[in-house]
Amino acid sequence: MMKNIYKLTFLLIIGTVVFYGCDDFLEEDLRDEVTPSNFFNTADEAQLAVNGAYSILGRQGMYNWPGINDFYHYGSDILESSRNAGATSDQSSYSYGEGVSDLNNVWEDCYEVVNATVEFLTRIEGNENLPEDARNLAVGELLFLRALAYYHLTNIWGDVPYIRELMNPIEAGELGRFDEAQIKADMKADLERAIALLPESYPENVSRATRYAAATLKAKFHMLDEEWSQVKEECDFVINNSPHRLLDNFADVFDQLDPDNAYNDEQLFLIDYKADDRSSRFTSFFNPRIRDEPTRRGNRPGGPGTPRRFELLQAAMAELDQDMTGFGLAIPVQSFADQANWQDGDLRYDVTITQQHLGFDLNFPYFKKSWNLDQLESRRQNHHDNAVVFRLADVYLMAAEAENELNGPGGAYSYINAVRERAFEPNRPYSGMNQNELRMAIRDERKFELAAEGHRKLDLIRWGILVETVQNTEYLSFNNAAANVQARNVKYPVPQEQIIINPNLLESDPTNNGFR
Predict the structure, then answer these.
(1) What pLDDT shows up at residue 39?
(2) Confidence at residue 278, expressed as pLDDT on a 0 to 100 scale
(3) Fewest CB atoms within 10 A around its CB: which of 65, 157, 331, 510?
(4) How far from the centroid of its chain's Cα atoms is residue 501's Cα?
(5) What are the φ/ψ torsions at residue 403 (nearest 5 degrees)?
(6) Cβ–Cβ < 8 Å for 505, 499
(7) Given this model, what pLDDT does residue 284 score?
């Protein structure tokens, strides 16, 4: 795998359909011969390379689906699979092993990001043929992208092969696993450099890394290591200096019906999809299937010979240019879907959860915030919806957690209450708690504010409560997560395909994260 990725990294920059915008460059004449050694001589050439690295993030092994979403979504106390077969069910029920499908794609795509960024950093950093501002921008973006790839690799597998400089392809393909603590320390240092090199924003509203996206990623690395002072410093930097703001209306955060107006001020970093340029499957895993809805689809409310209930629902949706054509594989667990388990008056519930549509009962509760039923602009397997990686509410809640761990509740209230202010009418700010009470409140706030956004499972892992939380959650009978979860499930096994290619991956840990 690594050998092939290494050889293909340069081809990526000229062979990938880049969706981050390089129209001006494409209008220019390419050189008669393009090689890695002579390619990076203009700002446009450097940016094309960076765009190629960005484009990997839109693949099914990354922020499309399936991909890293399998790890970050399934197996928590808020989300499970609606099917009793396949990879989503295996991961939702903790019944997977080394051969779990989909995770090999994650490994390969993460390492394609790593190899591309290492290749391009080598060609761009210190390259005097490039204008200094273009060189600094490209280096900052590449450092961010490499750190993002290693963030996922270490979160999912812990110790992993570590590539930081150009290597002989054979040697790279025979690397063993490296201490994740050192990898994370290096990524924090790289992100510190990236923050200094990256701009505050871009003239065009695109999904490119700013210094505030880099600071957010750096805060997340620190948070995993409970380095609370550094978490607080990075979060305050974003909150106090960035042009981003919390939107007044929670529902507006997720409104992407108009593909030309799918950005908002709360988004810090996202993967940009456009229906005609690059298709996304992500939304399809939240959207239901019409053939499965509603529960009593065999009933004919008008009597014999009249349309069945699901046909009536489909007709009602068609009048709104809607349809349910997704997979419906990602659904809330029943306890999370039960409004009685939310605080009274939490306006986020009706935005987040639905168990009906247009007056028709559905088979399951669904994450409405992650829906897009539009059939004009967001058809199945061709969704334009952006995958939001970081948003500002998460930063506020990280800051609240860090401040509470450092100094107790006094200074932490302002951060968590800023998030709660739009969630309740009238406002229900927190006060009068001790440190542990606010700690538990912050954990709950992250649960309800960031539901189905890929944070909950990792939060449970870093708090050290994954196993007990899963064991105390009721799932659909076929998922059986409570009976299967073990301490080893905080990490995944290295994919079987990779071990076959490179047996050295077992040298430092013959148990493969406890799965042997």
Answers:
(1) 66
(2) 59
(3) 510
(4) 28
(5) -65, -40
(6) yes
(7) 85
C-alpha closest to that of 113 among 12, 218, 216: 12
Give dist(CA 150, CA 187) in Å, integer: 8
The rounded distance, in Å, linking the Cα atoms of 271 and 273 is 6
Return the bridge partners of 80, or none.
331
Cα–Cα distance for residue pair 444/426, rounded to 1 Å: 19
d(CA 234, CA 369): 28
How far apart, in whole angstroms, are the C-alpha atoms of residue 394 and residue 133?
31
Chain mean position to CA 297: 35
CA pair distance 78, 212, nearest whole angstrom? 29
466: helix, coil or strand? helix
Per-residue pLDDT, averaged over 392-405, amounts to 99
Rounded CA-CA distance 154/471 in Å is 25
Q: From CA 466, how far away is CA 323, in angstroms rounded? A: 36
Q: How far apart are CA 514 and CA 284, in angstroms?
A: 33
Residue 407: what pLDDT?
98
**Residue-level pLDDT at 34:** 39
pTM: 0.92
- Residue 38 pLDDT level (bands cut at 50, 70, 90): low
Q: How big is the CA angle at 326 (ends 321 and 328), to the nearest 5 degrees?
A: 130
> Is the backbone peptide bond immediately before 426 cis, with ω within 30 degrees of 0?
yes
The per-residue pLDDT for 6 is: 41
Rounded to an integer, what distance in angstroms lies between the CA atom of residue 470 and that of residue 481? 7
What gap in Å lies between CA 290 and CA 306, rounded to an integer? 18
Residue 422 and residue 263: Cα distance in Å, rounded?
19
CA 396 to chain centre: 18
Supply the mean pLDDT for the chain: 89
- The one-character DSSP state at 354 is E
Number of other CB atoms surrounding residue 266 within 10 Å? 20
Query: In this structure, which amino acid lies at residue 223?
Result: M
Of residues 449 and 23, the one with the higher pLDDT is 449
- Count CB-CB contacts under 10 A for residue 375: 16
Fill in the DSSP letter of residue 109.
H
